[in-house]
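Following up on my earlier thread - several people asked me to post the actual chain instead of describing it. Fair enough. Here it is, all 274 residues.
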Amino acid sequence: MEEHKNSTETIIMASLSSLPPPQLSNLNHSISTLFHHHHRRLSSLLSSPTLFSLTLHHLHSLSLHHKSLLIARHLLSTLSLLTHFLNPTTTPPPPTTTNLRHLDSVLLLLLLCELRHQNPQALQSPPSKWRLILSKYVSDTMLMMSMNGTTLIHFVEVVVNCQRFIGVMGCGGKAGREMAASVAAVVALPSVEVRGGGRECVICKEEMSEGRDVCELPCHHLFHWMCILPWLKKRNTCPCCRHRLPTDDVSGEIERLWDVVVKVGRSELYGDCT
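Reply from S.P.:
Thanks for posting it. Predicted structure:
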């Protein structure tokens, strides 16, 4: 587990080192803004016995699958922010969620997971004392962050922790499974005119006539619209090069965005651009 954590941290730090100073500064600002919003929600949650009790009760009512899904969606939004700076052609990060109940729930869940990981004995106290225990833990953590100025380091830790907690909860998707491309990604695909004859649609094996409107995927491969649409309803990969389009499947989208981070990180570490 520790070896996997170190490997994940190394990949993320290497990908961050690939950013030029202006982009790194912009990313740091975006992360700081996001964390400030999360810390305000967490402070409100921990300072209100009623809100804390309601949120904790809501977490207890969720199945393990739904808890892991909360963390997966949180990880997805974090990875979206990172990959947008690493590769501006990727889908922009979604806006901060306006569903405060979901946000409060995932922040509390992550905090409980983190504290249990750092100090397994801490949560053996009665749940009535958890709010005060968590408040002290958050206060100490925030003090350390403000003294060391480790916003990017904390960002890396959030990604690593989310991935670890999802793995522990068994939320990870099955690698290599097929999933549909997201509706938004398909609707956004451009229609282009075929220039020059002789191009073949690899799905139907028929020639794409010159002057005909066809679909162009982000990898620039062309297909008949009537061929590619049924394909993308079942899988989010290009039939030619396996370039992956966004998907509405949470675990699949995490896998897709993580591949972007890994590619940049490995390229920075080893000069491996494959």
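The chain has a mean pLDDT of 85. That should answer part of your original question.
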